[in-house]
Amino acid sequence: MHNNLQYQVFTEQYGTDPHQTGDLYIPAQKSKGTVCLFHGGFWKMPYDKSQLDAVAVKLVENTFCVWNIEYRRVGYLPQGYPETFIDAIAAINQLAPLSKKYPQLAPRPLYVAGHSAGGHLSLWLGNHKARLGKHALTIVPDVFIGLAPVVDLVESYRDMQRREFITAFLGCTPDENRDIYHQTSPIALLPAQGKQVIFHGEHDEVLPIGEIDDYARQARQNGTPVEQIYIAQGTHMDFCDPDSSSTSRFIHWLNAQSELQAV
């Protein structure tokens, strides 16, 4: 446990594996809701939740509860599928017992947000087919947020710079198992079950902005509204910097939602 005059931090498990863990930030003041964070890093080791520690602090200083989630990744496991997806579901479901343990945890409104590969997990969870066997969300978040997210795993596979990360994550190519790609790619699973918001830097050097445009267009055609917020001069890693204009836009948007609900 970490104590601060403005907030407390508790590390909690949502499963028995050492990587099935998260840091729960709870503000001293009444919370505006809870933000779940999934970090990026190609779904692989050594990238971990510490990427978003500073952003989590910024969010709790804005009086949001934060659940900064770790999950099993490539390098610890031979591949990410299906364990990474199972962990994403289990981590969100863990909020129910956590809210009983910590009465000051405000589970509503509930925002699920992820950066890059974590943004893929967030948008995947936002789909009504986001389940693996017996594993399914028992809590329905209010908004699913992608921060420079991966939205199309087949298109990512076609990009030579991303191909090796995709095949390592899913354990196959699209030709070897198209079904796995259809089960795990947000664009293939439209329509989604909840509100989706995508923040993306106009100068993102890793994920082309055109893939976000294609995803949003297909989503709207399928009856899923996607709010697109593009950040001028924004780059891919800005969302890990608590003082960047990209992170500021994200937090400003969250604060605006709480003001709307207060009216």
Automatic annotation (TrEMBL):
Pfam families from the UniProt entry: BD-FAE (PF20434)
UniProt-recorded Gene Ontology molecular function terms: hydrolase activity
Protein name (Swiss-Prot/TrEMBL): Alpha/beta hydrolase
Keyword Hydrolase attached: yes
Keywords: Hydrolase
All residue ranges annotated as the BD-FAE-like domain in the record: 23-209
Species of origin: Symbiopectobacterium purcellii
